[in-house]
UniProtKB/TrEMBL annotation:
GO molecular function terms attached to this record: rRNA (uridine-C5-)-methyltransferase activity
Recorded family membership: Belongs to the class I-like SAM-binding methyltransferase superfamily. RNA M5U methyltransferase family.
GO-annotated biological processes: rRNA base methylation
Gene: rlmD
CDD domains given in the database record: AdoMet_MTases
Species in which this protein is naturally found: Aerococcus agrisoli
Enzyme Commission code: 2.1.1.190
Name of the protein: 23S rRNA (Uracil(1939)-C(5))-methyltransferase RlmD
InterPro entries: MeTrfase_TrmA_AS, MeTrfase_TrmA_CS, NA-bd_OB-fold, SAM-dependent_MTases_sf, TRAM_dom, U5_MeTrfase_fam
Enzyme class: transferase
Keywords annotated in UniProt: Methyltransferase, S-adenosyl-L-methionine, Transferase
NCBIfam families xref list: rumA
Pfam families cross-referenced by the UniProt entry: tRNA_U5-meth_tr
Transmembrane segments: none
Active site location: C422 (nucleophile), C422
Length: 466
């Protein structure tokens, strides 16, 4: 049966709330045609703040129950809106909350985690006030931009992976990175090097990666391309000279050939065009070597607070043996090793384990053991190859550890568990698995690790009570 198609309508609505992705929610009720009740239309609107009154255009407005739209006009700004941000700017993905005052962002995220904890049966009274930033701007130590087929160099449009919006500035990126982006963008135009087309997979330049240590000042610039650098050497040398003239703290300039085309790969060919293949960084007083593909906390100011909070919850003593699950390059392992008898780290990415071992060696730590393994299998093997831990800390990816890993954690049976999460929804799901093993949540500490984005870091302490 063919559905009726209704006219396009222009509607004025008030934004009621934001979802976990930072997208606004509004409701419109059509005038009733038959009976006392009109049809409900649920709208998801980008780049808005709760309380904003906006005008939107909706195709087939009466013939649908929900629609995702951009607003045409901001009729009346919410008291929560940051009026210093232009309201008509084209939005790239990455910072959907940037139009909201920072205090309102913190309240929104704190309410989110309370809601997720309630879903997991955890009292909101255990959720402490969120830890925010004094200066929540230009905090990222890493930016990865995309070359568009049309010559743009920036970030993907929100909800449209094929479109790249040229980055003129960003409230997330240090000024040095914005300057580097402009140099690279002009260099690309001067040599007319094509960006990679997302559909045909043809072109030369794919991505620009920039890293900057706030502790040492060292900067890395890496160009990801689909071809070897040989035939472009003169142009690459020219870019090197332009970059070093403007940013003398660059210690690593690399041309990296993406072996898997546009797919992410850890097996790329890297060519060092200046300096070395890594930069030095510091966190919690420890030295870390950072390569292009290294996973390292992108907000060093909040990362210090995050590690401090996790260690405070853990209450590590000099006679304790600690397991750091999903250990990465040792962000938590090294501070834990300084405070404990021994630390074991388990991580599935082989390169991260190699980095963790090297970082421990660089910091003169001889009480660490790192194991490249799947988390669940690693926990199964650990008692035989290393011993039984007294404390477990886990810092899984945003999609969480999953039921199998959480059950394995429960069977391991440490007295205390510290869960460091960057995904509150998956955190709530994971916590439920530990109830059957006699664990209860003692403390929940949200940290705004990613201001102006929808992401939230949360640290949870659990104790075994039965």
């Amino acid at each position: 049966m063919k559905k009726n198609i209704y006219p396009t309508e222009v509607l004025d609505v008030t934004v009621e709330s934001l979802n976990e992705k930072g997208v606004g929610f509004a409701r419109y009720i059509h005038p009733p045609e038959k009976g006392p009740n009109g049809k409900h239309l649920l709208l998801h609107i980008d780049n808005v703040v709760p309380g904003d009154k906006v005008r939107v255009t909706v195709v087939n407005a009466k013939g649908r129950h929900r629609a995702g739209v951009a607003y045409d006009e901001l009729l009346e700004p919410s008291p929560l809106r940051n009026l210093d941000m232009p309201t008509n700017r084209e939005m790239a993905a990455g910072a959907p909350l940037q139009f909201m005052k920072y205090e309102a962002q913190l309240a929104h995220k704190e309410n989110l985690i309370k809601g997720y904890m309630a879903d997991a049966g955890v009292s909101e009274d255990l959720v402490k006030p969120i830890i925010g930033m004094e200066n929540p701007y230009r905090y990222r130590n890493k930016m990865e931009l995309t070359f568009g087929a049309d010559g743009a160099l920036g970030m993907h449009q929100q909800g449209n992976y094929r479109r790249v919006i040229d980055l003129e500035d960003s409230i997330l990126a240090p000024e040095e990175m914005i300057a580097i982006k402009k140099i690279v963008g002009q260099w690309q135009k001067d040599y007319q090097f094509p960006g990679v087309d997302k559909d045909t997979k043809e072109g030369l330049l794919a991505n620009l990666l920039m890293r900057q240590s706030f502790a040492t000042g060292e900067i890395m610039v890496a160009l990801y391309a689909l071809e070897q650098p040989d035939q472009y050497q003169a142009a690459i040398d020219d870019l090197r000279d332009r970059l070093l003239s403007a940013q003398p703290r660059i210690e690593s300039f690399q041309w990296i050939v993406k072996k898997g085309g546009m797919e992410r790969s850890y097996d790329n060919d890297a060519y060092v065009m200046y300096g070395r293949d890594y930069i030095n960084d510091r966190l919690q007083g420890f030295k870390f070597r950072i390569w292009p593909d290294t996973f390292f906390q992108v907000n060093p100011v909040q990362a210090e607070k995050m590690v401090d909070t996790a260690l405070s919850m853990a209450q590590v003593s000099p006679d304790m043996r600690v397991l750091d699950l999903f250990c990465g390059i040792g962000t938590f392992s090294l501070p834990l090793a300084r405070a404990s008898k021994e630390v074991a780290g388990i991580e599935i990415v082989e390169n991260s384990i190699l980095s963790a071992r090297r970082n421990a060696e660089d910091n003169n730590l001889d009480n660490t053991f790192f194991m490249a393994s799947d988390a669940r299998l690693g926990m199964k093997e650990l008692p035989e190859v290393w011993g039984q831990p007294d404390l477990l800390l886990l810092d899984p990816p945003r999609n969480g550890a999953g039921g199998k890993v959480m059950r394995a954690i429960g069977r391991l049976g440490t007295d205390r568990i510290v869960y460091v999460s960057c995904g509150p929804k998956s955190l709530a799901t994971d916590l439920v698995w530990l109830k059957d093993f006699g664990y209860e949540v003692v403390e929940v500490q949200p940290i705004d690790q990613f201001p102006h984005t929808a992401h939230l870091e949360t640290i949870v302490l659990l104790k075994k009570v039965k």
